[in-house]
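Inputs:
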Amino acid sequence: MQLVKERKAADAIVLPFWEGKKQAEKATSFSEADDIAHMPIAAGDFKGKEGEVMVLYGPKLKEEKRVLLVGLGLKEKSTLETFRKSYAAVVKAALGKKFKTLNIVMPNVKGVASGICEGLLLANYCFDKMKKEPGALLSKVAFIGIDAKEFTECKKLETLIESVNFARDLVNSNADEVTPQRLSECAELLAKEFPKVTATVFGKKEIEKHKMGLLSAVSRGAARDPAFIIIEYKGNPSSKEKTALVGKGITYDTGGLNLKVNVGIETMKCDMAGAAAVMGTVRAAAALGLKVNVVGVIPTTENAIGPHSYKPGDVYISYLGKSVEIADTDAEGRLVLADALAYTEKNLKPTQIIDLATLTGSVVIALGEEIAGLYSADEKMVKGLIEASNQTHERVWPLPIAPEYREKLKSSIADMKNVGGRKGGSIIAALFLQDFVQNTPWAHIDIAGTAYLSDTKPYHPTHATGFGVRLLIAYLEKNGK
Ligand code: BES
Ligand code: ZN
Ligand code: ZN
């Protein structure tokens, strides 16, 4: 979508209104707004509630064929999220009428352009490549009355949200298309596109040579080889700081021999959403030219079922040397992450590590589809991630890595087992991962609920959200230097 400042011919002009005490009140200094909206406001048909949108015809305007009134709710209660949601509602209404171009009259409040822009850009997405008819999208938006600084911010957001959509596309595409090999290619293409990005890919043999025994085990049932992807962006070579982002890259999670029966298998192409968010974040950092050093690490394989599948009851040796009894082949994410975390710490020597993973069903039960579970013993990382979460509204909530549950991972035949019962399942998964990071500040974000939606949200359609890209970029901008 093209973002401009000039008011030229468009399908509609968009005028913002607060929900006033008695009736809607204009939220702009656009002189014609009162006259245009007088009738629906006086009749009580347009109240200015958050996300309320009304299409009007009639008034003769210089450049536009119609008017869209948009409600922003109560002024004193408004936040950036209000603007994201309200302008996402504008996009929905506009797309419903097949509009292509909008002239948006900026509200006369400071500091809200980023919310407006994010709402517009995030809502202007559809995954239509498997459909005969292409989906409707806006092609151009003009911001009338925006100041130069705000406009620059919007351009930055456009770059950022291209990477959110890159992550969304990877997750939404078929599991048989987005294979470990395809993810590897993506990393290599990014290295070609951005001079400060390099990509290294280990195939099956190298994974075995490096003794990543857990990643190898999970991959045994798959028709395609696993891969271990390292994608690095050096945006600040003179700094010693380096953030490692580790993303779970299970391209499809059947559950393995502990096959997912009854519920849930049909959404399991989403099980590489952590990998997609990591790749999207590295892409965004490079495209924005952030002055940070980031290394993305992606252990990727399908968790398939077949004659060579790894077996419940068997024991495998991890990269770190600890042996793990496979009590459930469906708890595969923590296995591939364990090898990736240990490899990352030892060989890439980052100053902090954040992993993102669609790791447990229990976090979905605990926090739903709005909020991801955040686990970290490092106060500074927790604070930084919560700040980034408040800024972007990619919500995270701290959960405890409760040592009381550690004994549930005890095994009689190995150093540990990979599951510890259903109770506190997301905490137990975090405890498992914790054993594979020794000395580096580390945070784990369980995005099983937020990565892939069953219901639409104001600025996300169902399916992939690209959750994590905006959060991590906001975090890196403040904590990655
Ligand atoms: N990929 C799933 C977790 C998941 C669930 C992601 C729902 C997205 C939505 C993970 O590999 C898994 O199967 N976890 C099991 C672990 C259990 C066997 C201990 C779970 O949470 O049920
Ligand atoms: Zn699983
Ligand atoms: Zn999984």
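The chain has a mean pLDDT of 97. Flag for discussion at group meeting.
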